[in-house]
Predict the 3D structure of the following.
Amino acid sequence: MDNHQHNIIIVGSGIVGMTLALMLSKQKCKVAILDKNSKKKLLELKDLRTSALSQGSSRILKEISLWDKIKKKAQPISEINVSEGTNINDLNFKSESLNEGPLGYIVDNTYLKTTIFKEILESNFIKFFGGVNIKDIKKKNGSSVVLSNKGNFSAPLVVGADGRNSKMRFFANIKSFFFDYNQTAFVFNISHTLSHQSKALERFFPSGPLALLPMQNNNKKSSSVVWTVDSQFKKKLMERKNFNNEFEKKYAKAFGRITKISKPVAYDLNVISCYEHFKERIVLVGDACQAIHPIAGQGLNLGLRDSYHLANIISEGLKLGLDVGSAYVLRDYSSKRLIDKNLLVQATHRLNQLFSNNSMIVKIIRENGLKIFNKSDYLKKKSMMFAMGLMKFDF
């Protein structure tokens, strides 16, 4: 049993939750992280996926002295090409048009997660508790008491950072919008004969978008792929020969001939967006609060901005002697995050609907819209700043 009172309890040891814990630890805030997985399992993690980190996210990680460690394994993105199908350069974004550095970075998930987790274990202000099965949460004397198989944990505030199937969302009785896209995302890596030259591709097809993301390994001749298709095609594509043939058609030798395709992992896609960000001393961050379509690769970045703003508000509240679990403090967090969250949830939702439409009229509008957009430096720069996580929405 844990006999200590903590300033904050974070449920979930994903990237968003761990980053929040490290931010708070820099302010000497006592944090407990509760996770269903053991320390051993998290240290031996094998995740073949990659994460897309925006320029803004890299700056957040820099503030907690993590970025230098992550950067050496991060592949910068200097250019993004967006197109209708296999058209060339319908819409082109280049980092050189701004003076903000790369548009983003692609990082190996295993390295990213284990690097952050090792920092957690070395902190004097963070306690990690693995193998925790949370049974209930009670409110008592201005605290949330977490009841679990590992004993009871108490703090003025519990942060739910436990992903799209969040238990904390259930315990807080926070209602959410849910929409099933009837789409499946296949995530895998490829090796190719030509260098990607730090370029990412986003190709939109009626059956769903295809994203090619540059990876650092194999002398820049590898890319991470997120291929989204209508769920009706999932069964057909589960046969490896069909999968490879259909993918190669859409890949269209973008970076030369494919020499290797890793085993794809399939994920059914939906969107979850909570109507409230907090309730009764429980606040949700990241996918626990909003799990969005991967069409723009912005889910993790949105969650890291949640952690950044929540850490600042908690730190300020503790300095002022405020009750950080109170509605007074958490309303401030919610108002600062409202526009950014809603804008990205709606943008990804509508974008997917727009580009998954088979109508010939809509297709013509899309193609012409991309070309018009590409000619406007103002629109391109504004959208790049938004995608890079550098737009300010807090008040």
Notes: The first helix runs from residue 15 to 26. The chain has 13 helices and 21 strands. The chain has a mean pLDDT of 92. Residues 8-54+113-176+274-376 form a domain with the FAD/NAD(P)-binding domain fold (CATH 3.50.50.60).
